Inverse folding.
């Protein structure tokens, strides 16, 4: 109970930070994200970013490389199982965003993949022609409800986020993630908190393994790697919140006028 | 008679050379050129040089440079703008060719286009999946103000704009140095030298 209270208080604190950040007139919680997300804690963020880079180089990247050397079926099966677990968060978010049709499709996907697909290791739903799966989370739902991102923040180990997305993540541990509820609070002998933590760690390694070359390439060709990662993260979140399958010009270029100004010269 | 035929042929060629090029055809031809360069059995340096030459022909380096500078470009003196463009071109060509040179024989298929206005067309394409990576969506922002000479202004990979990323990177460097453009010049110089 006490633990929950602390989490709630922390979430409230984060939200209030979000609102305070808006008091300078640039970051108000607003319906439309027409302004740049402010990096209010840049100095601190850069330090955490360096720490994360160190952790990545010494621990995460070597593990991800090892993971990449596993036989393809094992990698694919793990990746599918992780994706299947994420459906448990996606479904309530589909509902919260009013997308009931997708919620039904994803529920059927979860049922098929968990049973016929052997605990999600085989993506049977994809093979039988279900629509492409798009992950949703509580940060995206808050965004879809019109809540602005607030300040950009780099979390230790977890990486780039915003105040809104961090607060959204807390919803998972406040009852929003059925997998968390079953593992941590479920009264059963099979699922424990260790299983939950392991599943999250594997999810991180799977993501890193899928992006080994692109991260290296980005780092090598960036003149400010921190700023590149920030920009790419924020663009990606905007696309996800607005459910853009392809880059929407309104989202990509917040300052389309800038191109026009260049053209006039 | 022979003379007339030659003159007619010449006129025809002239017409062809000034004919508007469709943005999607332009992109497919550009990626084919790049793909050919990358699939050749030549050294990495030679590949990089070929890619640089393709970029110089097909990318609006000046336009992207000024876009990347953001609003600070209005406060620059002419000599500073000139210096920036020289440094930016070196930086851009190195960064662009180095990013692409890692790929061997990438297959890009143009899927369609959307004309935004007379100045811009977005061309949609996909980088075909291989056993090592999934299919990747790539959109190209093509500047079509001069229809006979279209130029690439941005690559949007899976919805992520490289021009916007670069612009935010430049802004970060300038802002963390109290708005001093020389800090950006030094960074660009350093990148090109390494």
């Amino acid at each position: 109970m006490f633990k929950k209270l602390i989490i709630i208080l922390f979430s409230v604190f984060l939200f209030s930070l979000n609102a305070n950040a808006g008091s300078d007139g640039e970051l108000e919680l607003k319906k439309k994200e027409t302004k740049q997300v402010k990096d209010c804690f840049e100095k601190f963020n850069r330090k955490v970013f360096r720490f994360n880079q160190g952790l990545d180089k010494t621990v995460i990247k070597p593990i991800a490389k090892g993971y990449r050397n596993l036989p393809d079926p094992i990698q694919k099966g793990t990746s599918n199982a992780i994706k299947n677990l994420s459906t448990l968060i996606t479904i309530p978010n589909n509902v919260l965003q009013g997308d009931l049709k997708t919620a039904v499709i994803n529920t059927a996907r979860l049922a098929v993949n968990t049973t016929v697909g052997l605990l999600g290791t085989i993506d049977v739903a994809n093979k039988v022609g279900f629509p492409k799966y798009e992950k949703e989370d509580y940060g995206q739902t808050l965004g879809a409800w019109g809540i602005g991102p607030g300040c950009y923040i780099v979390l230790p180990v977890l990486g780039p986020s915003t105040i809104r997305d961090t607060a959204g993540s807390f919803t998972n541990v406040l009852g929003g993630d059925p997998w968390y509820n079953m593992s941590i609070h479920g009264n059963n002998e099979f699922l424990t908190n260790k299983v939950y933590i392991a599943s999250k760690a594997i999810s991180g390694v799977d993501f890193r393994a899928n992006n080994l070359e692109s991260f290296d390439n980005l780092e090598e060709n960036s003149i400010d790697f921190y700023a590149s990662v920030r920009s790419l993260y924020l663009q990606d979140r905007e696309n996800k919140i607005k459910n853009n399958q392809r880059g929407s010009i309104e989202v990509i270029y917040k300052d389309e006028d800038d191109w026009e100004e260049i053209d006039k010269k | 008679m022979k003379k007339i035929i030659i003159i007619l042929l010449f006129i025809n060629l002239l017409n062809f050379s000034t004919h508007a090029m469709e943005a999607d055809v332009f992109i497919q031809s550009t990626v084919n050129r790049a793909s050919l360069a990358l699939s050749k059995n030549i050294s990495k340096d030679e590949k990089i040089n070929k890619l640089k030459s393709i970029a110089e022909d097909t990318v609006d380096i000046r336009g992207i440079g000024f876009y990347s500078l953001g609003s600070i470009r209005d406060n620059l003196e002419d000599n500073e703008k000139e210096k920036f463009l020289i440094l930016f071109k070196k930086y851009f060509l190195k960064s662009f060719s180095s990013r692409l040179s890692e790929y061997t024989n990438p297959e890009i298929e143009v899927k369609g286009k959307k004309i935004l206005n007379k100045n811009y067309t977005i061309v949609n394409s996909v980088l075909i999946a291989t056993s090592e990576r999934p299919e990747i969506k790539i959109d190209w922002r093509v500047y079509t103000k001069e229809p006979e000479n279209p130029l690439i202004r941005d690559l949007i990979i899976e919805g992520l704009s490289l021009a916007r990323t670069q612009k935010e990177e430049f802004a970060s460097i300038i802002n963390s140095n109290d708005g001093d453009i020389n800090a950006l010049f030094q960074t660009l110089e350093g990148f090109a030298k390494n």
Observations:
- Chain B has a mean pLDDT of 85.
- The helical segments of chain B are 2-17, 23-39, 44-58, 61-69, 78-101, 162-175, 181-193.
